Amino acid sequence: MKQVWVTALAKDEARIAQVAATLRRYGIAAQGHVWLDEPDKAVARVVLDAMQAADAWIVLVDEATLAKPSVRYGLSLLYASLQASRGAAPPVLFLTASGDTVPPPLFAGALTFADRNAAWPAKLVAALARAPKQAPLAALGGYRLTLWGDENIGQWFEIGSLEGPLAGFAFGVPRSDEVSIDFQAVGARGALPAKTTLEYAQEGLGMQIGGTDYVSWAVRNAIGPDDSYFVRVRGCPATLLLMPYPEGDDVEATIVRLG
Taking a C-beta distance cutoff of 8 angstroms, is the pair 63, 27 a contact? Predict the structure, then answer.
C-alpha cells in the first residue's frame, strides 16, 4: 500500500479527516502532522525523519499561513532535505480552498488542486506511478541541502555537491539584522561533526549578486562526495548563496530561493 504524508498548515480536523478518507478509498494510507512555525528550532527535522517512507506529500494549504515567509522557508527546507536524503524528492500536491495557491519556488512541478476538484486523487495516483523517475531539484544547482538541528543547537544546513568534489566552498545569506551566520564546519556526510578543522576559513565576505547584498563565509577544505559543508544560520533567509570557493571572476554562484 502506498503511503502519503499529509502536512496541514492549519488545525482543521474535519478537513484532515476528509482527505484521509478520500485517500483510503484509493488504497492509499495517510500519516501526517500540523505544521509548527518555529524555524529557528529546526522543528522540520523531526518531520523529515518521519517522512522517509512516504511515497508522496500532500500539503493542506491555509492561505494565511502559507503567506508567511517563515512557513514558505520551512517547507522549502523540508523539501530540499527529502531530496538530499532520498536521492529524489517525492511528488507533492498542494490542496487549497481556491486552487490558486502559488507554492514556494523550490516546489516547481508540484501539483495544485482545489479541495473540491474531484480529479485530485486520480492525479495523485498518476504522480505516484511516476515518482521513481523524478530527478534532483534543478533549483539547487547541483547541490544537496539538508536541514539539521533542534531547539538547543539551533538551525544547521548541510551542503554538498552532486557534481564532483569541491576545492573549497562559500555560503551566503542576504545582509540583514534578522539573519546571520555564526558557525561553519566541514565533516563526514550525514551528521553534524563533533569537531572540525578548517582550512583558510573566512567570515563576513561581501558579495552582491542580482541586486542583493550577501554576507558569506568560506573555507578552502576539499569536500568530496562523502563530505559536507555545515553552517549554522540564525533567522529565515529568503535566499541562500551557494558557490565553490571564489577564485577569479568565473565562479558560478547558485541562488536558492526559499520564500
Answer: no
Q: Label residues 39-61 b or e (16+ Cβ within 10 Å = b).
A: bebbbbbebbeebeebbbbbbbb
Sheet holding 56-60, edge to edge: 28-34, 2-8, 56-60, 92-96, 111-114
CB atoms closer than 10 angstroms to residue 128: 18
In this structure, is the dihedral angle defined by the CA atoms of residues 29, 33, 35 and 40, taken in order, positive or negative? negative
Q: Which cell numbers in the block locate residue 93?
A: 500536491
Q: What is the pLDDT of residues 12-48, one digit of tens each?
A: 999 999 999 999 999 999 999 999 998 877 778 888 9
Q: Helices H, strands E: what count in the chain?
A: 5, 14
Q: Alpha-carbon distance 161 to 191, whole Å?
A: 16
Taken as a whole, the chain contains a residue count of: 259
Domains of the chain plus CATH, in order, are 2-133 (3.40.50.9100), 141-257 (2.60.40)
Specify the DSSP class assigned to residue 133.
G
How many other C-beta atoms are found inside a 10 Å radius of the C-beta of residue 130? 9
Tell me the residue ranges of DSSP E strands in the chain: 2-8, 28-34, 56-60, 92-96, 111-114, 143-150, 154-161, 166-174, 180-188, 202-209, 212-223, 227-234, 239-244, 254-257
pLDDT tens, 207-231? Answer: 999 899 999 999 999 999 999 999 9
